[in-house]
Amino acid sequence: MTDVLEFFVPSHARDLEDLEKTGPTQYHVSEPCEFDVHPRQQVDDLARLFDCLHREKSPTSLFSKPELFTALFSYIKAIESPETNQPVTKQARHKICHEVSERLKKLLQISLAYFRKKANGGVNEALLVCLRSTVKMYVFILCNILLSSAPILEDDENLSYSSQRSARKRKRAKNEQDTGIGEDCSGVDQDGRELALTALIDVCSPDLLTMWGIHMEENMLNLMLRMVLHMITQKANVQNDAQPVSGALAVLLLRVSGHIVAQGSVAPCDFIVPLIELALKTESAAQFLTRFVSEAESGDISNDSTNNIVIALIEGMAVAALHDVSGDAGAAKTWHCFSARLQNVV
After folding, report:
1. Cβ proximity of 88 and 38 under 8 Å
2. Residue 142 to residue 137: CA distance in whole angstroms
3. Cβ atoms < 10 Å from Cβ of 313
4. What is the per-residue DSSP string for 282-332?
5. Predicted model pTM
6. What b/e string do you get for 49-71 counting C-beta neighbours within 10 Å, with b at 16 or more?
7. pLDDT tens digits for range 13-39
8. How many Cβ atoms from other residues are within 10 Å of residue 308's Cβ?
9. Could you tell me the residue ranges of all domains in the chain?
């Protein structure tokens, strides 16, 4: 336990297999395995994997048992790599999201109880690395699932994977936002997305500062931010029927942005640039940002960092109205959407 190699969130899944990128002092996948689970066998395969995790007594078994993480990692690697022989099905993504979210929530509860017990000191450093690494593994898995695009024609055995990809591209080019009822592009249902987001919100809780030390890991925060930006461009995550998901996204963005700006590496005026760009491109993102401002104004999560971000966002949208909206009918429409909704918030 004294020579535990900590897991750090990679920029790309395959980086975990490259010792030159992880370095010898960080966790890496020493025995890479290629994903070759037939679509019809994936849910059963995952059920066996999560049963193994359940039978383990330790809450950090995903980290302490490399064979368990490697098996789950192969799904994430397959999702990231379009050239894989077998696509990861919508049902498999759904299964992973629900199972991992539940386990992450339980792990955070256990961690919080331990930290409260050790409030006066005496936290075991090796155990801390195990807890922190397992949490980051779960975050890595959840974010990659919610960042993914599930195959559409996966049930048609007469179509090759390449033709499925071509059909998927054509269908999404025609109407990128249309998915099944309650689903976004990831294929995970609304309950699953809400469960995952609330678990990620808990990861950023100020009650868990003992786990992170001075600052939360930058790569993990950036991954969560990328996931949020991806999700808010989809109507299924911000429309009226998805209020729980939209609200959870707003709270998560507030917490993630607060941590990022508090570290001092990014100024609020720079942080909000991609938010404004998205708001001018899609009405769903503009609609979401008013929810974001509303959550910030509620005061429950408000602090100096989040307040500065909201001020920078509103000022940035005002500047965009003067310079970026003129001559762009689409941007003008989304800006007016944001402005009209904002009047009902502030």
Report:
1. no
2. 9
3. 25
4. -HHHHHHHHHHHHHHHTSSS--HHHHHHHHHHHHHHHHHHHHTSTT-HHHH
5. 0.88
6. bbeebeeeeebbbbbbeeebbbb
7. 999 999 988 989 999 998 877 899 999
8. 19
9. 1-152+183-212
